[in-house]
Amino acid sequence: MRCVRAPGAVRVPGAARPLPAIRGPGLMIASVLLAACAVGPDYKRPAFDAAPAYKEAGDWKPSEPADALSRGPWWKIFKDEVLDGLEAQVAISNETVKAAAAAYEQAEALVDQARAGFWPTLSASAARQRGTTYGPPARITDSAGLSADWSLDIWGSIRRATESNRASAQSSAAALAAARLSAQAALATDYFELRAQDQLQTLLDDTVEAQRQSLKLAESRYRFGVAAKADVVSAQAQLLSSQAQQVNAKIQRALLEHAIAVLIGRQPADFSVSAAPLRSDVPTVPAGLPSQLLERRPDVAQAERKMAAANAQIGVAVAAYFPSLTLSGSDDYTGSSMSRLIRASNRVWALGPSLAQTLFDGGLRRAQTAQARAAYVASVDNYRQTVLAGFQQVEDEIATLRILEQQAVIEEAAVAAAQEAERLTLNQYKAGTVPYSSVIAAQTTTLSSEQTALGVLSSRLQASVAMIEALGGGWDAGQLP
Fold first, then answer.
1. Is residue 180's pLDDT more than 80?
2. CA distance 442 to 454
């Protein structure tokens, strides 16, 4: 329970300075207000014991400085102008992000609605009625007046509701950041997959051209009678198979291009990305300390703010047990002529407090309080699960990056060996010392090794994006409004 006490002035929520001390008839009401308490538990963030270091970090050495994500938009670490241009459109054009932004604006409006409860409600009325009292003749009665009602927040119900809505608005702000980060990460992942398809297309183009030369060689040797017809047919079959892969590779690129268009809020028919090679280096960022993850992930901040909102709702439910005090006033004029309505003889006014207390509700308030407490417990569990999932994601990406880096070294050596073997086998075939089936096997091995190496590079870039997303993309809970 939090109580508010002030020895000579009333602090009005939202006011720049305290109002002057209240004198006379309002002193009793002021005393009640000054002793007002916000019932229910004050929020304290549950402790979470984070490990001192990430398990999978080991001897993994990131290649980028520790402040790589704090110097600006996280995707600039990849130094790709096309990606920079696409990412800049996500925050303003992605429909999911725009929906999250609208949800945040809605949450802010709910905060303003809750704050309105601190102030009195003032109403004005005017009416003209024609009727009879006990019989004819009919008379015209005019009336006009003002009325005011002020529900005094003695037990902090309005304060707790405002506190809850404010935390919910912060949760929506974190949800907006999470939606933006998710869309940006999805765009970067699709972009690097698209570039991998461009690289695969170049690889298949080179392979098809090399196999055309092999087919010409087989045909030439067949014409001179130093090779069998089977060599020509085998060369043709291999060339057609590679050409089929060459055509099929365009399908995946088209799908990725369409996905990127949707992520930036564009129609696929009006969008295209020119082909370009895939970058050969993979920037990574340090994971930092596990405890930092609690402040750097927007989904963790979202879950934490939901806890705060649920905790405040307990106070709202508890306040229902206590009596409510309302200060009401009215000043009305009623007469038979509008021109002579505002006269002392037509005036009826009233001013005074009213106290209301629910005596029996069939256990409604008890059930509402139990519901609020259970909702808070659920929000705590959801928060802890979100934190654990965040730790898991970081551990996963650290392990993925480290192991893929080791695999990349092996695959590069495998590609070099396969290319050398293909060159030697082709020379041996020209010399007539090996059959053409050996050439086919060598070329197949080379293409397979190059495709695997390309896949590993693409996976490393995607894992780097996933790592940045797992770390919050440079976001910090201090950015919450």
1. yes
2. 18
349 with 384, same domain: the answer is no
pLDDT of residue 301: 94
Query: What distances in angstroms separate CA 225 from CA 16, 118, 228, 238, one per listed residue?
Result: 101, 101, 7, 22
- 181 forms beta bridges with none
**What is each CA distance from 251 to 198, 274, 471, in whole angstroms?**
12, 15, 33
Closest CA to 194 of 282, 246, 259: 259
Provide the whole-model pTM: 0.84
Which parts of 9-152 fold into alpha helices (H)? 27-34, 81-93, 95-116
Helix (H, G, I), strand (E, B) or coil at 27: helix
Instruction: Supply φ then ψ for residue 347, to 5 degrees.
Output: -90, 135
- The two tokens of residue 274 are 């020119």
Beta strands in 153-289 (DSSP E): none
Number of domains forming the structure of the chain: 3
Dihedral (Cα; 97, 100, 106, 108), 10-degree rounding: -90
pLDDT of 289? 81
Distances (CA, A) of 233 to 237, 239, 436: 6, 10, 10
Q: Mark out the alpha helices in 224-297 (DSSP H runs).
A: 229-263, 293-296
- pLDDT tens per residue across span 238-279: 999 999 999 999 999 999 999 999 999 999 999 999 999 998
Amino acid residing at 63: S
Look up residue 399 and give its two tokens: 């392990």
Polymer length of the chain: 481
Using alpha carbons, list the distances in angstroms from residue 96 to 35, 239, 246. Answer: 47, 45, 35
Which helix (H) or strand (E) covers residue 298, if one does? helix 298-319
- End-to-end Cα distance, the chain: 25
Co-location of 422 and 395 in the same domain: yes
Residue 280 has a CB neighbour count (10 Å cut-off) of: 8
How many other CB atoms sit within 10 Å of the CB of residue 126? 11
139 and 3 share one domain: no
Q: β-strand 139-152 against 324-335: which pairing, if any? A: antiparallel
Residues 271 and 397 in one domain: yes
Distance, CA of 244 to CA of 236 (rounded, Å): 12
Tokens of 401: 């990056």
pLDDT of residue 64: 45
Specify burial of residue 352 (Cβ count, 10 A radius: 0-12, 13-18, 19+): exposed
The whole-number pLDDT of residue 476 equals: 87
Q: Is the pLDDT score of 466 beyond 90?
A: yes
Q: Which domain holds residue 176?
A: 43-118+156-322+364-479
- State how beta strands 324-335 and 347-356 pair: antiparallel
pLDDT of residue 66 exceeding 60, the answer is no
Whether residue 230 sits in one domain with residue 188: yes
Q: DSSP letter at 42?
A: P
Structure-token pair, residue 55: 């398990």
